[in-house]
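Q: I have 127 residues here and want to know how they pack in 3D. Can you give me a structure?
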Amino acid sequence: MESIESQMTTPVISIYSEATAQEAAQLMKEKKIGSLLIKGYEGYVGIVSERDLVYKVVGEGLDPNTVPLSSIMTENILTIEKTASNSEASALMLEYKINHLAITENEDIVGILSIKDLVHTKEKQSA
């Protein structure tokens, strides 16, 4: 059973909660990633994804240059240990209807796993 550690994206890319949706979108584009962890004064305080930007900013007709990430981020960061299996990660994503999981080692976030990472691994195994 392969753990998710080999599939997660590292290093963790993050941005401060005071940053705007526009700044987050630009960073995601630059890094070619679909989510960012949000930093507060004492560590990570949330996560924002492409979906958040589309649904909560563009879909609502808001100005991405003025919307702070703190107003659109998901505050509860769902995590799973890096030793977990693909099926455990998939089940958690399905249960909570999310596309990104924070990966932990000894309670510290060390990576991000996306649904795309799991699909890519499944495709490689099938080939």
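Q: Anything worth noting?
A: Residues 115-126 form the longest helix (12 residues). Strands lie at 14-16, 35-40, 43-49, 79-81, 100-105, 108-114.
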